[in-house]
Structures are given as C-alpha cells and as structure tokens.
Amino acid sequence: MKKIIIALLLGFSALSSLSQKIVRYDLYVRDTVVNFTGKEKRAISVNGQIPMPTLTFTEGDTAEIYVHNELNEKTALHWHGLFLPNREDGVPYLTQMPIEPHTTYLYRFPIIQTGTHWYHSHFELQEQIGMYGSFIMNKRKADPTFRKGIDDLPAVPIVLSEWTDYKPKNVHRMLHNAGDWFAIRKGTTQSYGEAIKQGYLKTKVKNEWKRMTAMDVSDVYYDKFLINGKNESQLPQFKAGDKVRLRVSNGGASSYFWLQYSGGKITVIANDGNDVEPVEVDRLIIAVSETYDVLVTIPKDSIAYEFLTTPEDRTKSTSLWLGSGVKKLANPMPKLKYFEGMKMMNDMMKLNGDLNDMGMSMSLNRMDMNVVMYPEITGAINKKKSKDMKGMDMQGMDMSKDNSMHDGNQYNANALSDIVTLNYAMLKSPTPTKLPDTTVKTFCFTLTGNMNRYVWSLDNKVVSEADKILIHKGENVRIVLYNNSMMRHPMHLHGHDFRLLNGKGDRAPLKNIVDIMPMETDTLEFNANVYGDWFFHCHILYHMMSGMGRVFSYENQPANPEIKNPKLAQRKLFNDDRKFHFMAENDFATNGNDGMAMYSNTRWQVASEWRLGYHDMHGYEIENHIGRYVGRMQWFMPFIGYDYRYRMRDGEINFQESNIFGQTNTKDTRQALSLGFVYTLPMLIKLETEVFTTGTVLVQLKRDDIPITKRIRAHLMINTDKEYMIGLQYVFSRFMALRVHYDSDMGLGFGLNLNY
Amino acid sequence: MNFKIKIVMMVTALLSLTVLSCKAAIKNAKTESIKVYGNCDMCKNRIEQAANKKGIAKADWDADSKLLSLTYDSKQTTTEEVLKRIAYAGYDNALFLAPDEAYTKLPGCCQYKRKNITKTVVTETKKDVLSDTTKKEGPLAKVFSYYFALKDALAKDDGNAAAVQAKALYKAIEVAPMDKMTPAEHAVWMNRQQKLSYDAEHIKGVTETEHQREHFVSLSKNMYEVIKVFKMDLPVYYDYCPMANDGKGANWLSLQETINNPYMGKKMQTCGKVQETITK
C-alpha cells in the first residue's frame, strides 16, 4: 500500500516537472573595449553587448542560466529583486564563492513571481563597466492579476546606466581620498570666489564653520549617460495613439535619474516589479537599482517624442525617441542652484554633525529638500541679487532669506509648482499586501556616514564591524530606517519584497528598494519566509563597497552548500570594506620637496609627511603617523608618531631653537616617538597636538585646500615651533597642480605638485 | 632687459594670435537654409543668438520666409546641434519642436502660431476633470467647483483671486437649484445655506488672506456637512491641519490627495493630513 502511494507521488511529481518549462540562457562574460568618449577603454560585455542581454521568462518557468566566465578575474551575478533559493542569489562570499576565471557556473531556480527586474554583477566594481541587464518575468495569461489594457501592451525593456573613463577602482580610491577633481569636472567646486560673486559668502563661511565641504547630490563625475547602452536612440515603429510600456531599470552604479516625456504625462503602473494602481505624473526620479514600469502615449504621427533621462546632478542627459519625424523636445532640466542647497544644508546640520529636521517628520520622498536647488520649482537664480549687490546690505538680505526658511517647510515639489513629481506616498498596490498575523520583530537603523572620508555605514558600523542580524523563519520583520547622513541612499533587501508603510493601509506597495533622503524616516516590513543569508545594503556601488550594509540571517538554517569554508568566505566578504586606499603627493619645488603619502581605510590611517631640502642647511624632515579615526563624523584621530629630522647650519653645531612654550630643541638631528591627536575644528582647520618622547610639545593649526576659485586652492599652517607656511596652488589636471608657497624654514618656493 | 623684451614680444605674439583666431572666418564652412518658425524682429534676435557660436556657427534668419541661413564648421558641429539650441530657445524648426515650457516663456510678440502641436495634454486633462465635475455633479456642482477654486487661491496666498472666487461662490449658493435636490439633500441644504452664504460674503468682501482664512474655517466645516450628503463622483478628501487657525486646527476639502494647505499658504503648504475620504 505504501509503495503504491510513493509510486503515485513520484509519478505525480514527474508529471508536474514535465509541465514546467525550462528556459535556458548562456551568458558569455568577456573583456571588451568600448569607446563612449573618443577614448578606448576596458569594459565587460556579455554575449558581446552592453547592457547584458534581456532575460525573459514567464511565471512558472524554471530558469537555467549558464554563466561562462571568460574574464581573467572572478565574477558573480545577482538577480535583483528575485525570490529564489539563497544559494542562487549571487553575492560572492555570502551566498556562493565567486565564479573563477574561465569556468562555467549554473544558476538554476524556479520563476515564482512576475514583473520588471534586472540583474548585475555583485563582484567588486564590475557593475560600473557594463555588467547590468533587464530581467523580465511575464504574467501567465490566466493570471488573476493580469491587467487588460496594461499587461497586453507592447513593452520595451530599458536599462539606464552611466559611463566613466576612469577605472572604477580609481573612482573608488579618489572618492575615499576626498579630492575635489570630480567637483572640478562637474563645475561644482562652490569656491569662495564663486560664493562672493553670487552673493553667498556668508553661506559658504557658515558651511565651512559646520565642517562641511562643497555639497553635491552625487559623488562621481560621469562622461556619458546611457539608455540601453546608447546615449541617444530611437524606436520609430510607434504611431499616433499607441501606448507603450517602458520597463525601466536603473542599472547605474551611483546615479539617480529623472524621467520625463515630451508627449504628455507619464503613467506609473509598477515599481520594483510589483504592480501599483496607475498614477499620472509629469516626472519621477528613479533611485539607483529601482525599477519603474511606466506608460507613455504617442499623441501624433510624424513627431518623435523624447523620453528624457537626466541624472540627478543634471550634468548631462540621455534620450530615447518614440515615434518618427520631427523631434519634440522635453524641457531640459536646468542646472542646480548649489549655493541654495548649501544654505539648506547649513540650516539642517547641527555643529556636531547630526541632522536636524526642525520638527518636520519627513518620509517617503514627499519633501525633497533639494527643491531649493531646482530652478523649475523654486525659480531661477536671482540675477538681480548678484547684479545689484553693490550698495546693498548683503548681510541683511541673507538674514531675511534665512528667516523665511525657518518659518516652516517648503520642500514639497507638488505643492510649490504645477509639475507633479511622483513620491512613494502616491504608490498603492492593487491587491492587499497585509502580512500574516504573527509576531513582529523590529529593528531600527540609522544611516550614517561622512563625505570627507567617504565612510558609509549603518549605526556607524560597516559590514565587517557588525554581526549578522538573526531573524526567525515565520516572523514578521519590521525595519525603521532614519537617514542621518547628508546623502540619499537606496537601501536594497535581497530575496524578499517588503511593504513600504506609506499610509495606504492594506494596500501598501511592495518594493525591494527604498530610497531614503537625508532626515527621512521610513518603515518597511516583510515576512521572513526563506532561509538564507540575505544582504541588505545601500545600492550606490561605492557606498556598498565601503561597507554600508548588513546581513540578515535565519536562525537554525541549513548550511549553504556553496559556502564550503564559511570563515574564509566571511573574511573575503569583510575585505571589501576593510580595504586600504592609497594616496600620495609631492611638490617638486625650487626650495625643496614637500609631500605626503597616506594609506587608509574606514578607521585607520598610516601617513607620512616629508619636507626635503636640497642641501643640509634647509634640512630634511619626515613625520610618520599611525592613527585611528574615532566617532561618526571622524573629526578626531589619536595617533602615535615617529619623527626624524636632520639639518646642518653653516658653522653652527647643535643649534637650539625654542618654541613658544619656552622648550628648546634642536632640529639638527632628532629622532623622536610621539603621541598625539588630530581634531578637525570648525572651518575645517586641523588642530594637531603632539607630545614627543623628548618632552617637547607641538601644537599645530593647518588648513588645506581652501577653495578660492574653481581651480585655485590655498593652504595655511602655523605651529608652536614658530614655523608657518602659506601656499597657493592651481589645479590644472587630475594629477598636477602648480604651487607657490612660503615656508618659514625653506623660504619661497615654486613647484609642480604631483598627486596620485 | 633682453629677457623682458622677449616676454613682451611673446605676449604680443600670443595676443595677436588670439585676435586673429577670433576674427578668422568659420573653417570647413558649410551653409544650409533651414525652416525656423518665428514672428518678429525680436524672434530674429533670439533665434540668431541661440544659433551663433563664435567661429563655429553663424546664422541669419529671415522673418518673411522663415528661413535660417546657417553657416557652420562641419568638423566642429552639426545642423542638428544648432537647431536643438534654437528649439530650446523656444522656436520650432525643421528638426526639433521646442519644449512647451520654452515656447510659453517667449515674449508675447514672439508667440508664433505653432503648427503640428496640439495644446499640451497637461492642461487639457485638468480642464476635463473640472468640466466633468460640473456636468455630472448635480445641483451643487458650481458651488463645489468655486469652493475648490477658492481653496486653491488661498493655498497660493492670493487674496485677490480668493475674493473673486468667493464672489462666484456666493452667487452660486444663492441660485442653487433646490428643485433638483432629493429630500435628504434639501434638508441639509436648508440647514447650511445661510451659514455658507455668510462666510462666502465675508471672504469676497476683503482681500487680506488672514481674514478670509478665518471665514474659510467655518465655510469648510459647513461645506463638509453638505458634501457628505451630496457627494461627488470623484473622491473628496477632508484634510486637517493642526497648526491652522492659530494652532486651534482647521479642516478643508480637496480633490487631490496631496496636501495643499489653504491656511498656511506657501510657507507650510504641505502641513496637514487626510482625515477622511468621502466617496460615493
């Protein structure tokens, strides 16, 4: 009897597996050379193309994806937004070991959902140079959620991305070294010169007083922006009256994009692969790694309408033309008013680096503080202001403006203008999304970070500094996120969709990314229903690689067979944010060589500074520090040091100098260990206090890189050894600057400053 | 001394070079004649300004023939680039149609007649919604639509517009066709008409938003009682802001779900929340 039942069961399961359709894709990952800017650069293509090919399935299929890694480096592919067994999730060293060069790896999983998703490399920075593509899962015809007039429309998969001619590793290094080369390229230095010209001197001073450097809405300068791998392309087949569904995924590594359409309103019908009730808007911003399905209509024949996609920093744009004929332009996005943004940040930033929302409870992107920078919402830069400045009481003007700021919030783009901008509060699921009635576990995270050292974290801990977060299968998990950093972050959860609590009750939309702006608080919840180690992280590639994330892990779960050596895997995973970044510079000047080299990571810094004269009289001096940054804003760094100096003055042996404390010491030959600290004061002045084994004390004030104009930087230093230095440099390329400085020891020098 | 002279020579040489290059005619010159739509001499100025780029493109537009004679350096730019700039300045041409926003920003005399372009979809749909409501909404359609217009005017801090809308509202209240009301509707109307009329009259009598808003508090309350019984085809949102009315809190009605506060004006336009959604 038992045997019969087993046989029956076997037969049944065989049947059901037969009825399943297996859809196989072969992906050949290869090195390639691209030319987006006139220069040939390395990129990675899959099956010879960028973006990677669109993978299409129907719910109920089984996906079999063979990845042939023909690179000379490892890789791993993540299926973004998909429900799948943890071992297929594609996070190297967490859910699998990376795919070794010149090997083939099979991802096999059932397709149990529908919607617009995408896939990308989750290995190091490969996503930046081509490894992104659309992943579309269609509804079955009999699907009860099939929407007539929507799900039967022609659909075009669209992947947005960006291109930089710099190697991504270099981009990452440059971000960590907090240079302002990207700002120079973007024209967003926000120097004192520009501030004075535009009447924002007070704003700039206040900004530096609060220890902030120039503000921006994005970190990286990009050379080109792309829709499906092209800056401009056309779909001429559409005719008047056609409705087109664009399945838009943002595959950019760090760019948010504004979407606009010159043929009328945009109807949003799905977000992150989940249907939402149609909502009409004039424009929307798509966060890094989000997906939106939008409907657009072709109003007339013989006109091509522009689907205009503009990165948040508005430096450039990319277009897709729908239809054929004379081209109808969308309104281009005017340049940001950066000093207005700076003023806004000044108001929000407390002296201790915390953000202050002034009593507005902000959430769901409804209030966008950046509207103060959007000329299309808050008006163009007031030209009168800069022209009529003479004879006007500038301070008075600033004051009155400041006061109006404090009266309350004025950041709701939809209330301030007739332009309707989508926000999360407008998303509503067409079906109830209520979670099963069970126990709820709540976690609160504060998103933290600082731009100066490019450290990004949750609760001031990076991935390698925090334990996995244990959850229990079956329970509901609620996450409350508060963004206390100065940048927005698209937080992405692997393997689950969560409900974003947005005031729609049972119809809260399902998402797997929530974009959270500075000072916003958002709450999301999901049912823990699939074992595994699931990554939860900021999807800005360079933030993720800096350690902005956590791992959710289920209690008592079976081991992942792909991870044979969990300890090794964990160490490799942690290496991402423990990585040290190197920088060095040297000024080859007429009076000697001035330079420094630095090797640093999230918390630690090893640095050397040297001043080498050309003869014994000027002397040679080198200072070495090993220090650790303390606190969230990392303004404080205690260190231990070792100094060596040698100098010989003509005819004088053992020449004694005294410092302002009356302590004497010789500079002739000195070796000393030291203990000290560096503290960043308002105006970004570094206070360095150091006690040497010889008993001498050194206190030094130093300010580097004061932005005088777009490309001129000033440097100041003074210390208790009665030494001082002032310098000016003109930055003319990424690596080079001309420098003139006066040093109390070495005198006047002109030189060429090289930096890496 | 010698050295100084050399420097002076070098500088003059450099200067003369730059002067030369400025004056130099466009290289690799190509000339084309292209249709650009416009009206007047002012248009001519604006079109040419948008098109011209020193040493790269030079344009001359003729108002009668609407033809742009364009000479450009074919190695440095393309007609497409130049025409795109012209379209961004607001002028439709052979290759590009200007963004609607750029066209509307043109000075009055420059608003040439646009071929090919239907009016923007945006404004049409908005109008449709309003006219729809007036058509189908029964006896108090006008009352409601003037109320919402009044609310929008207050939200924009526009006391003059508010007075105008209140005047229309006052009249609409007076002439509301009671014979078309159901008995239940009629009962409510009889109860509220006087009060509505009183507030509307006060709002139309002044242009200071402060005073208008005081009356708008009770006007909204009474309107809410009315609309609850009459009901519109569209959902109506009953909003509440705790800071309005000198911190005592106040309500208003809105057709949009997004908060657009008529009490706080532009300063705190988004203050408030939806308290109730009234649907049919």
The tally of structural domains of chain A comes to: 5
Rounded Rg of chain A: 29 Å
For this structure, the quaternary state is heterodimer
Number of alpha- plus pi-helical segments of chain B: 10
Could you outline the blueprint of secondary structure elements for this entry?
The complex is a heterodimer of chains A (756) and B (280).
Chain A lengths: L1 H18 L2 E13 L6 E6 L5 E7 L3 E8 L7 E4 L22 E8 L4 E7 L10 E7 L16 E9 L4 H9 L4 H6 L5 H7 L2 H9 L14 E4 L4 E4 L7 E8 L6 E5 L4 E6 L2 E8 L1 E4 L4 E7 L5 E9 L6 E5 L3 E3 L9 H11 L26 H4 L4 H5 L6 H13 L6 H4 L23 E11 L4 E4 L10 E3 L4 E8 L5 E5 L4 E3 L9 E2 L1 E4 L4 E7 L5 E6 L2 H5 L3 E6 L11 H13 L2 E9 L2 E9 L3 E9 L7 E9 L7 E11 L9 E3 L5 E3 L2 E13 L3 E8 L4 E11 L4 E8 L4 E8 L4 E8 L3 E9 L1
Chain B lengths: L1 H22 L5 E7 L5 H11 L5 E6 L4 E7 L5 H10 L7 E2 L2 H5 L16 H16 L4 H15 L3 H16 L8 H23 L3 H22 L5 E6 L2 H4 L2 E5 L18 E6 L2
Antiparallel strand pairs in B: 1-3, 2-3, 5-6, 5-7
Would you give an account of this structure?
The complex is a heterodimer of chains A (about 750) and B (about 280). Chain A is mainly beta and about 750 residues long. Chain A has five domains: about 15-145, Cupredoxins -  blue copper proteins (Immunoglobulin-like, Sandwich); about 180-210 and about 335-425, no CATH class; about 225-330, Cupredoxins -  blue copper proteins (Immunoglobulin-like, Sandwich), CATH 2.60.40; about 430-555, Immunoglobulin-like (Sandwich), CATH 2.60.40.420; about 580-755, Beta Barrel (Porin). Helix content of chain A is about 15%, strand content about 40%. Chain A is built from twelve helices and 45 strands. A twelve-stranded antiparallel β-barrel of chain A has the order 32-33-34-35-36-39-40-41-42-43-44-45. In chain A, strands 10-9-12-17-14-15 form a six-stranded mixed β-sheet, with no helix packed on it. In chain A, a hairpin with a 4-residue loop joins strand 41 (about 695-705) and strand 42. The longest helix of chain A has 18 residues, at about 1-20. The radius of gyration of chain A is 29 Å and the shape is globular. The N and C termini of chain A lie far apart (about 75 Å). In chain B, the strands form two sheets. In chain B, strands 1-3-2 form a three-stranded antiparallel β-sheet. A three-stranded antiparallel β-sheet of chain B has the order 6-5-7, with helices on one face. In chain B, helix 2 crosses helix 3 (about 80-90) and helix 8 runs antiparallel to helix 9. Helix content of chain B is about 50%, strand content about 15%. The N and C termini of chain B lie far apart (about 95 Å). Chain B has ten helices and seven strands. In chain B, strand 2 and strand 3 form a beta hairpin. By secondary structure, chain B is α+β, with helices and mostly antiparallel strands. The chains are: A mainly beta (about 750), B alpha+beta (about 280). The interface of A and B includes residues 265, 331, 332 and 367 of A. Strand 20 of chain A pairs parallel with strand 4 (about 95) of chain B, so a sheet runs across the interface.
